[in-house]
# Entry
Amino acid sequence: MKRVLLCAVWLVWSGMASATVYKWVDSQGKVQYGDSPPDGVNAEVVEMPGSHAAPAAAQAQTPSHAPAKPPATDDSAKKAVDSDVAQSREKQCSDAQERYKKLVETRKLYKTGPDGERQYLSSDEIDAERLAAKQDVDQICNSPT
# Structure
């Protein structure tokens, strides 16, 4: 159960850490922040603590008035990316299957309460956890993309 909680915390943190935040000045002279700047505004990327992808995301997003660069046609790079994506999907699928297997084989599940004590889940809550894990397996392992 600790692994499940740790995984959930990690997923939430990684989603927040990968977000790109932009800063710009609106027509009234007020500083604005957002995840995407309005068209025709000179915006800069704000470096967030713990964010590793902000500079790459800023380079990847081109303003609407700038011409888009043609994609690279290097077949070896595409094959390497496809291989990395396939390996990542296999790992995610095996992790999801392992989590589901543990939930099915476990009789009692608990969550750690705010005071550090174990709070055992009811049968309905356990069934909901198992169902969510099964849906994760189906979604991750059977996803074509």
